[in-house]
Design a protein that fits this description.
single chain, Nucleotidyltransferase, domain 5, five-stranded mixed beta sheet, 10 strands, 28% helix, disordered C terminus
Length: 226
């Protein structure tokens, strides 16, 4: 079975997990502001002690690759690459919005719904995408300014769940849509990365460690507007 270290630092939640096969062995996380620089490596060290594992046992590292906080993503990426280089193991990158959706779908009883994660990108802008209840992407990841005009694009013909730290500021506009539902206090957690990471691991969908760049998105978004 594959032993995988999961790292989530794309938002204010500093979260790490260790998994073995289809089982999460342990998770350590703290959602109290952006404390990744101080806590990430100590949390990882605590994980190994808690599970009686060592870095040499790792078969891969899974990284929440953005979008999200530029600094948080950079810190997580540096740590993930460090482990992969030192141990000569593969890097698995997972979209942060998909991880967020993996946590939300556990709370939803209905089938055939749309999941619309939203991460705060400041002001009335959010990082968003859309997934079905099998976590397959149905609308690509983008940075979107939500206003009275753009909110018209959020009118699917199915029940749609909105969640993430960017959702509250858009709720007033979105709740006028029939079928709109909202989930509070959903944050991306490394504990929800397992199935996504394992699928990629089995398919050998690995990143080129030397050339891998996270999905900063905001930087790219501004460049396209220049």
């Amino acid at each position: 079975m594959a032993v995988i270290l999961h790292i989530e630092t794309a938002t204010s939640n500093c979260s790490v997990s260790l998994s073995d096969g289809e089982r999460v062995l342990a998770t350590i996380e703290l959602n109290e502001g952006y404390t990744h620089a101080e806590n990430l490596h100590p949390f990882i060290e605590q994980l190994f002690k808690k599970t009686n594992l060592k870095p040499e046992h790792l078969n891969a590292v899974a990284l929440s690759a953005g979008p999200g906080s530029y600094t948080g993503i950079r810190i997580g990426t540096s740590a993930a690459k460090g482990f992969c280089y030192a141990l000569n193991i593969p890097l698995i990158a997972i979209n942060t919005l998909q991880i967020l959706s993996a946590g939300a779908v556990k709370l939803i009883a209905e089938k055939d719904v749309i999941l619309c994660p939203m991460l705060d990108a400041r002001r009335m802008e959010v990082y968003t995408a859309a997934y079905n209840d099998q976590l397959f992407e149905t609308k690509k990841t983008e940075a979107k300014i939500v206003d009275e005009n753009s909110v018209k694009e959020f009118r699917p013909d199915k029940i749609t769940y909105y969640f993430g730290d960017g959702m509250p500021k858009c709720k007033t506009l979105l709740q006028t849509h029939s079928g709109a539902k909202f989930l509070d206090n959903i944050v991306p957690s490394s504990s929800n990365m397992l199935n996504l990471a394992l699928t990629k691991y089995k398919a050998k969908q690995f990143e080129d460690i030397a050339y891998f760049e996270p999905l900063y998105l905001k930087e790219y978004f501004f460049k396209t507007k220049q």
